Amino acid sequence: MEAALSGAAHAGVDALTAPMPGTVTVVKVAPGDEVTAGQSLLVVEAMKMEHVISAPHAGTVTELNVTPGTTVAMDQVLAVVTPAEEDAS
């Protein structure tokens, strides 16, 4: 629950959330990693299906709240990606 609540504090960045309850099976990034738009970051398995969580845009992983084997709730914040260009007005 704590990770889900922390997502509200991330205005202006993109919090990547779990699409449904499940288990994180793969983590491909670490905090500080530069990512490209569409890059696969995490895999969540639910009901024997794998859901790939991808970067919504180019940027930096500024928060990572899970490791492989972590059980997650629907809409729980898994990671946060800060956009590469923060001066967009």
TrEMBL record:
Gene3D superfamilies: 2.40.50.100
Coiled coil: none
Keyword Thylakoid listed: no
Domain Lipoyl-binding, chain residue ranges per copy: 3-82
One Pfam match: Biotin_lipoyl
Keyword match RNA-binding: no
PANTHER family: OXALOACETATE DECARBOXYLASE ALPHA CHAIN
Protein's recorded name: Acetyl-COA carboxylase
Organism phylogeny: Bacteria, Bacillati, Actinomycetota, Actinomycetes, Kitasatosporales
